[in-house]
Amino acid sequence: MNYIEFLKTKIELAVDSGFEVDKSKINKALKPHQADSVAWALKGGRRALFESFGLGKTVQELEFCHLAAEHENGKALIVLPLGVKQEFTQDAANVLGYGRPRYVRTMAEVKESKEQILLTNYERVRDGDIEPSYFAATSLDEASVLRSFGSKTYQTFLDKFKNVKYKLVATATPSPNRYKELIHYAGYLEVMDTGQALTRFFQRDSTKANNLTLYPNMEDEFWLWVSSWALFVTKPSDINLTYSDEGYELPPLKVNWHEIPIKYGDAVDKNGQMSLFNEAAAGLKEAAQVKRESIDQRVKAMKEIVDASPEDHFVLWHDLESERHAIKKALPETVDIYGSMDYDTREQRVIDFSQGRTKLFATKKSLSGSGCNFQRYCHREIFLGIDYEFNDFIQAIHRCYRFLQTEPVVIDIIYMENEREIKDVLIEKWKNHNHMVEKMIEIVKKYGLSSATMEKRLERKMGVKTVRVEGKNFIAVHDDCVEETRRMESNSVDLIHTSIPFGNHYEYSANYNDFGHNQNTERFFEQMDFLTPELLRVLRPGRVAAIHVKDRVLFGNVTGTGMPTIEPFHALCIEHYMKHGFQYFGMITVVTDVVRENNQTYRLGWSEQCKDGSKMGVGCPEYILLFRKLPTDRSNAYADEPVKKSKEEYTRAQWQIDAHAYWRSSGDRLISKEELKELPVESLQQVYRQYSRETVYSYADHVKLAEDLDKNDKLPAIFMVVAPGAWNQMEVWDDINRMRTLNTNQSRRRAQMHVCPLQLDIVERIINRYSNEGDLVYDPFGGLMTVPMTAVKMHRKGYGCELNPDYFRDGVGYLQEAENEVDTPTLFDFMGEETNGSNT
User: Which of 249, 336, 445, 834 is the most buried (most CB within 10 A)?
Assistant: First the structure.
């Protein structure tokens, strides 16, 4: 396989694992758009139907299960919320003409049943009463329960439904507020591993775990990938322009926000600080208190709305039992349901309201917010309160606001003045939801349902037009580093210094040539197999390749272990480079800040350590792996062009300090712990590291000092101020300034930040130790051109290659600035010229 062929294998769409159904076998009761959706899902085998409310996904789920079970000569299972069971039994019999699906509670009932399609609820599957692996086909109705990756339901379902041949998920509101939740459906459907999809499409915040945003330049590719396994439909013509949308136009929607003012007279004590009122957005405790204290005011507003429209039917949405009791007291004619109510009674009350036999129906979103069809007799809904759960909110609205609704729908939302921020968040999520649906419909219309067309579109993101910028002391190339390194002369580079990407941890560009755009670590090293032999070829004999790496945290909810583990990436790199002929001769450890690391990964938490220390590892340092290309003359192992230093510039004293790292204080005495405690927090980190190097270490004293600092509010939660200093600085570097990167400049310029910037301190030391002035220093993963820029400043020549166009553009700017800085004459240069002139 050549390099281009390898890159083409990266194009990933959901593969078809089902069968082509004969359209004549699809139930004639299905409308054309419904039949097309069923045929598409059966061909894919494992697919998602995200259809607007009222498009008939119930009959589509039933028909998918019927045809898949018939094809496999087995049974099918539909998992659903209990409140919608009646919709499936009625549609199966009255619309499709099939037998009524049976509701089952145990595997014994499953095996004794004669029905082809069986129904159960989510709790039966989650708690182990029903085993999905028994069935040929399954469908999850109102599958939004899967959107939370860390939930018990998601983790359980991921394992229980694995390898079920035909899987369907169906919901009208997939992940409306955060795009990344869509990939949890993909994980369940076995389209792509959740961790892999997260790293492929989402930019990570290097300062905070789980703060992921969709790469702006990956949006089109993300939606193309989603549309290869998920079908978004808002009306029949979205699938085929020839299909009629008659009967599928939504009525007008009017949303009334009713803000109830709060009383400012009572101050609230918050940690010793007085506040005029509780702010609901401050936290769950405050939000709950606001709800409890405002029930009477909100119910009064609800009653006024109901009394103003005595002929209308209303759904009265509430969250608390105390709210339900208050509604019943204010409006005695209200029919209500609640969780502990006998299920048959509850189901009958839902049916009675949906068929217009009762006018006021009080229920919770968790009970009736999904699957119920109230549009035939009701067009009014009142929300007695608000919260951040947009999915539940939008689902509840669409119980009445759906196709076949003949009246304008009126939604009244009651909230307190100190809940304004929650209201603003809900409105913003609503906008995001509408944008997501519009984006998906646009792609379906543009590319249809053909994965071949989508694949052709994705291929266009492969390759890059080479751009080459050369200065007096640098070369910068915008290209794939494999292609650029192949063009370089053999034995032309004096030092290779780079920070290589992870296999699938970060993506740096929307291009299949990107080394970060790989399925896993194994695939990453397959791509590295094309680069590393070229690096060995271009490096001069005897010279050094210094490779900056870090081990990777693997999270338990991705690996299935339930605990964070570590991928020994540095060890895999050593094996890889040695395989290609590099000689490994050492490793420098760069100490990292364990407090900052925990803020990024949440894997080393103090609270978790106290609960069970057995699951706690340690912080991950960074490593500089040192490799050498064998020299021509191996009798003395000197490089063909040695890295030389005069003994005047590199003294015996400095050599001893470098070799043994035995540093004494330059003062008359060591700083005391008492003096340390008096220092400002911003100075503590540097001073304590020096103190630690110069004293005999005491673990007990170290802990005592940290505890004293904590008592005086000088132990920050965002970085570590009392990290122990290293005694051997040849092998362990503990004084790297983690903030000294080109991202500091990028931030000042408000330019794009690099996701993994290389610290300037590291680069300066490596260049100083392993190259001569005038040498050529090459970085195949140039990024913001930190390495070649530093080389120019240190009177070497810099050479960098970068695929990301934004990084490349900014990096060229830094290189030009560095060159101008080096070339700018100083007053001493002019003085030297005058002196030379007078001597001649």
Answer: 336
Beta bridge partners of 504: none
Q: How far apart are CA 143 and CA 158, in angstroms?
A: 13
Calpha distance 103→27 (Å, rounded): 23
With vertex at residue 665, the alpha carbon angle to CA 661 and CA 670, rounded to the nearest 5 degrees, is 125
Identify the three-state secondary structure at position 353.
helix
Sign of the C-alpha dihedral computed for residues 759, 762, 765 and 767 taken in this order: negative
H/E segment holding residue 499: strand 493-499
Six token digits for residue 804: 């990301």
Q: Round to whole Å and give the CA distance between 489 and 509.
A: 27
According to DSSP, the residues that pair with 111 across neighbouring strands are none
Helices (H), 32-149: 32-44, 57-72, 85-94, 107-112, 122-126
Question: What's the rounded Cα separation, in Å, for the pair 653 and 312?
Answer: 92
Q: What is the pLDDT of residue 433?
A: 77
- Determine the topology of domain 31-40+49-188 in CATH: Rossmann fold (3.40.50)
**Helix (H/G/I), strand (E/B), else coil: 550:** strand
Which among 477, 586, 486 has a CA at the least distance from the CA of 532? 486
Ramachandran class of 365: left when φ > 0, alpha when ψ lies in -120 to 50, beta otherwise: alpha
Under a CB-based contact definition with an 8 Å cutoff, are residues 314 and 378 in contact?
A: yes
DSSP state of 726: P
Domain 253-437, what fold?
Rossmann fold (3.40.50)
With the CA atoms of 539, 541, 543 and 547 taken in that order, what torsion angle do they form, in degrees rounded to the nearest 10? Answer: 50
When computed from its CA atoms, the radius of gyration of the chain, rounded to whole angstroms, is 33
Is the Cβ–Cβ distance between 809 and 681 less than 8 Å? no
Distance CA 763, CA 818 (A): 15
Vertex 526: Cα angle to 522 and 527 (nearest 5):
120
Predicted confidence at residue 238, as pLDDT, reads: 83
Residue-level pLDDT at 734: 47
Instruction: Show Cβ contacts of residue 323 under 8 Å, excluding neighbours closer than 6 positions.
Output: 291, 295, 298, 299, 384, 385
The crossing angle, in degrees rounded to 10, of helices 219-227 and 194-201 is 150
Give 464's contacts (C-beta < 8 A, 6+ positions apart): 478, 479, 480, 511, 513, 803
Percent of the chain past pLDDT 90, that is, above it, reads: 42
732-733, strands of its sheet edge to edge: 467-470, 474-478, 797-802, 776-779, 493-499, 539-550, 622-628, 583-590, 732-733
Q: Locate 736 and state its tokens.
A: 């790297």
> What are the angstrom distances between the C-alpha of 665 and each of 248, 659, 690, 761?
81, 18, 8, 22
Domain residue extents for the chain: 31-40+49-188, 192-214+481-635+738-840, 253-437, 644-721
Pair of tokens at residue 655:
């050599």
CA dist 593 and 438 (Å) reads 44
Backbone angles phi, psi at 547, to 5 degrees: -110, 120
The span from the CA of 74 to the CA of 786, in Å, is 61
- Averaged pLDDT of the chain: 80
Beta bridge partners of 232: 50
pLDDT digits (tens, 9 = 90+) for 163-173: 899 999 998 75
Domain 192-214+481-635+738-840 classification at class level: alpha beta
254-268, 385-399, 670-684: which is most confident? 385-399
- Name the 3-class secondary structure at 231: strand
Tell me the DSSP string of 678-724: HS-HHHHHHHHHHHHHHS---HHHHHHHHHHHHHTT-S-SSS-S-PP
* Mean pLDDT value of segment 119-128: 90
Tell me the two tokens of residue 320.
Answer: 């608390």
- Reported as a pLDDT band with limits 50, 70 and 90, residue 127 is confident
CA–CA separation, 73 and 67 (whole Å): 10
